[in-house]
Amino acid sequence: MICTCSTVIGLFLKHKRMQNKETQRKFAFRIDKDPPYINRIENGKQSMSFKFLEKIMKAHNLTAFTLFTEVSQWVDTNKEIVEAVERNNNNKPTDKNPNQKR
């Protein structure tokens, strides 16, 4: 199964946030976003701009190289989680396509 970049990075960012013992609300406040947006990012239901990704990298003190290295390592050890979330996202309608069957 091929997973989207949004799903993989979102799940990894959730991992980083939880590793830092930070709530979605606190993290969202820190980067000036609303918690539901962070929730959608972390669950692979929202794509993000590179500008926003840069903001998140800065908040976690990550360079692009470090981010992608850590994401790659995290995915290697959490493939089942990533695939399960991707399957779940592919089987549920999104706000972008309200006519999709449930």
What is this structure, in a nutshell?
With 102 residues, this protein is mainly α.
Topology:
Blueprint (H helix, E strand, L loop, with lengths): L4 H15 L4 H7 L4 H8 L7 H10 L4 H14 L1 H12 L12
Describe the structure.
The chain is an all-alpha fold and 102 residues long. The protein has a single domain (5-90), classed as lambda repressor-like DNA-binding domains (434 Repressor (Amino-terminal Domain)), CATH 1.10.260. Helix content is 65%, strand content 0%. The protein is built from 6 helices and no strands. The chain has helices at 5-19, 24-30, 35-42, 50-59, 64-77, 79-90. Helix 2 crosses helix 3 (35-42). The two termini are 22 Å apart. Mean pLDDT is 83; it is low at 94-102.
Radius of gyration: 14 Å
| Percent range for β-strand residues | under 5%
Query: How many domains is the backbone divided into?
Result: 1
The residue ranges in which pLDDT falls below 50 over 5 or more consecutive positions are 94-102
Q: What is the count of helical runs?
A: 6
**Overall strand count:** 0
CATH C-level label: Mainly Alpha
Helix percentage range: 55-70%
* Overall geometric form: globular
What's the order of the H and E elements? HHHHHH
CATH superfamily: lambda repressor-like DNA-binding domains
Which architecture would the CATH scheme give at its second level? Answer: Orthogonal Bundle
CATH topology: 434 Repressor (Amino-terminal Domain)
From the N-terminal CA to the C-terminal CA, the straight-line distance is 22 Å
